[in-house]
Amino acid sequence: MPSSEHMNDAVISIGSNIEKESNLPEAIRLIRRNRYIEVRKVSRFFESKSVGGPPDAPEFFNAAVQVRTVLDPAEVRTALRHIESVLGRERTEDPDAPRTIDLDLTYYRGVVGDFDGWSLPDALALTAPHVAIPIADIVPDWQHEVTGQTAREIATQFGQSGESVQPVQSVVLGRPYRSRSSEDWNDKREVYAPRFEALVRQQLLEMGEDPEREGLLRTPLRVAKAMDYLTSGYATSLDEIVNGAVFDAEGAEEMILIKEVEFFSLCEHHLLPFFGSATVAYLPKGRIIGLSKVARILDLYARRLQVQERMVNQVADAMERTLQPHGVAVVVKGKHLCMMMRGVQKQDGSMLTSAMRGTFREDPRTRAEFLNLAG
Ligand code: ZN
User: Does position 158 have pLDDT exceeding 80, yes or no?
Assistant: First the structure.
């Protein structure tokens, strides 16, 4: 769990020289999917000669990512080690050994120090062009907390030796579902989630389709992005959503009801959509929340693989945890395509589930009032 509610700015440096064309974008995608790390900016990919290794060692790809996080530096490092192991990194004694992926916390604003075998800022931020140059690409004006130099000044001081680190022209990193950047884009070279896309391509083959035909060529990419969006609840936390939107409201004791908020989710049994609306009510005990946040809390749990019964309870739990009210009630109406499309049940596939907490559970009059208002 994060040790602080405060968001801290940091830079993560990435390197790979094994299957680097897929490992680098995949690492960035996995960083994005950590619910406690928010990716702000990704550098271009740079190619650099392997330093210190055998002369025929494959060249490295390097990049840097600016993030905001509630994690402390040690927790960020643990999260990065986890991503490394997902991508098949085996740590060896040899610091120059080829690696599928190398993720390092280089800067963490406001923290300077030597820890057990690592330091902040990372020493390589000053001494290694393949680390310094990608950093200057995203945060040129950040000052090194010890020397006071900006990232741009550090990168340019490498002069000739910096020329062995060059932007990769052939790879364009895929825009995630969140980004709205409008830069010039070459679709054919777009790299987003190579491992995920390979699985979708395999799935098309298993279905007897031809992944090379015109209409399906970009389908693996589109599916990867769509699934990341539809499961983006995993990459968000309740704290991040609620942050700052709970207000003290002395004397507010009347039931607050938000009616029929739309949601779209995926059933975890068939990966098919279910969708509908949720009505959420609570009896405040001095604390209220902005209305739009209730919709975002619903999305937090809808945008993942779900069953409706669990979702309704998760929303109720989140409201309870956030507001500590006298009571919470949630009713969800959902239509399940896995029922409607497969003809298992010939009804219209709709389902009603509810969760009642506190006064809504204990007091029949409060419950009746809610059910009356919820219609
Ligand atoms: Zn289902």
Answer: yes
